[in-house]
Fold this sequence. Notes:
mainly alpha
Amino acid sequence: MKxxxxxxxIAGLIICTAGITAQAKVSGSASTRSQLASTTQISTxxxxxxxxxxxxSRISVKMANFNNGQTRRVTAxxxxxxxxxNIISKLDQxxxxxxxxxxxxxMLDSKTQKLATDYGTYIARLQETGSYICGKSQGQFxxxxxxxxxxxxxxxxxxxxxxxxxxxxxxxxxxKLQNALKTLKGSSTPPIKTMQRGNAASSTSxxx
Length: 208
């Protein structure tokens, strides 16, 4: 009887130990899964933040480069408008009809103003991306970035439009006036400089 009682106690201890071991394994497995999930979340968050910071860095570089380019374009356009105004003034004094070139100047001013407005809108939208924290507002950030890209396409189209207008309207009208001046004076005049690669417009000149 006593022997049977001892055997029962030992069996109970074995069953209890097995239960504790199994529970420990389950607890350990759950803890491991939790740690893995936490590590995955941290890794994902770090990757998103790093990618976002890289995009922001590229945006800053792009803004700086485009600002420099815009400054050069504005300077070139202002110089071109000043030269056209000077040509008009000189030829008006000689009684030559400059109405076409005057119309060109008005149109050029309108086109450069549109470019300035579109460029300002583009920069403002690009700057708005900085209002959102990296990795925290990806939806809003990408929306503003997409809007900025569309506006950049408009700015580039404005630049091409001005270049085309110079080539197809302004320069031919200046050449026409130069020929009129040749006829009036019976003498030759210096050739007109054409647009140089990388410049928005070239300088033009006419003898008095």
